[in-house]
Design brief:
Elements (H helix, E strand, L loop, with lengths): L1 H18 L7 H9 L5 H16 L3
Keywords: Signal
Protein name: Argininosuccinate lyase
């Protein structure tokens, strides 16, 4: 049970961060997705997480 819980915690964290992005993508993000679309759900989630973390981090 502990192993299952430990495996699901990062997934929950990533899903929460990915949900934060919403539809508020910048022009550059939309252009990148148009020119170089994510090759699958894992890459799309990775980009969403990167964008969410970049928005949370102070400049």
């Amino acid at each position: 049970m502990r192993t299952l819980r430990a495996a699901l915690m990062p997934v929950l964290l990533l899903a929460t961060l990915a949900a934060c992005t919403g539809g508020n993508r910048t022009f550059g993000e939309r252009a990148r997705d148009a020119v170089d679309p994510p090759s699958g759900p894992v890459e799309a989630t990775g980009r969403a997480v990167d964008r969410a973390v970049d928005r949370v981090r102070p400049n």
